[in-house]
Amino acid sequence: MAGQSFTFLRWKYSNYFELVEEREKGIVVKCRLCVGEKLLSTAKNTTSNLKKHLHAKHSTTEMDEKEPNDTCTPPQAKQQKLDFSSPSPGKTISSTELNKLVAAFIVEEMQPLSTVEAPTFRNIISKISVTGKRTGGVLPDRKTFTNFLDNAYMEMETDLKKTFADLEYVSTTADLWTAQNKSFLGITVHWIDPASLHRQKAAIACRRFRGRHTYDAIAAEIEQIHSSFALCGKITATVTDNGANFVKAFRMFQADDDEAENNEDEVIFTDLHEVLRDDSETSERYILPPHHRCASHTLTLICTNDVVKFLTAEELCALCEHDVTVVLD
Length: 329
Hints:
Blueprint: H1 6-10, E1 17-22, E2 26-31, E3 39-43, H2 48-57, E4 61-62, E5 78-79, H3 95-108, H4 119-126, H5 142-165, E6 170-179, E7 182-192, E8 199-208, H6 215-228, E9 235-240, H7 244-253, H8 272-278, E10 291-293, H9 295-328
Parallel strand pairs: 6-9, 9-10
Antiparallel strand pairs: 1-2, 2-3, 4-5, 6-7, 7-8
Helix pairs in contact: 6-7
């Protein structure tokens, strides 16, 4: 063995490697801790690559230094046991990062805020190593965590506005629903990422809708939300269901009549009391983007309503035909 390889042989952890080959400028060794044939190369006068390998792949293994003049027999590696009674001694995170992770879990999994006060959940968090704390992670109470979510929302809103500022075209969807006697309006934005050409989406509103679901009130809310994100003029179309007030809102306040759907032959029923009440009070003009009706909702209406009406009409026609035949006979 050439003398230049003695740097590796004198290394205190060389017993965890087997010398395979000596080359002109380096050596090749095999890791005895790795499963299979894991060959590594390093220079003759340094063991830095081997140190990095042990740190990256076997950091949880307790290493024993070799005995003097021992170059062949590796000691038995001592595998650490997991201790669930205290935080892991491995990687630590900051309290802010922990709160962000919990916030992401609550939002994305649609969990109630009361989750942060559940004893079992807080016990799980306490097992996470947090920088500067020996007892593990500690979540704030529900009220404080709500404020944290509000701040996170503001940051997300700012980031979305920056993203939208660089876009030329987007589309939106709008929906209105009622749950537990409370109405809500939700709006989402969809766009193509100019760099990756991947489709992206984001929810920009889910707010209480107070009062009657009139077409002008719907138009006012949609325009206000679009304006708050500086989307006016960038929206190619807004998709909604076939609700009469949604359809009327876009028919009355759509900016470009040429791109609107041709609804001249459609029969739309209007609340006479609403017309007499509003009269000239709603003189304010809103501007809405082009409108498209949701194809899925249209197909659902055909399957659940129109088919039933058609079948009922067929039965009535057959019954009438039968009655006429009986009378003639």
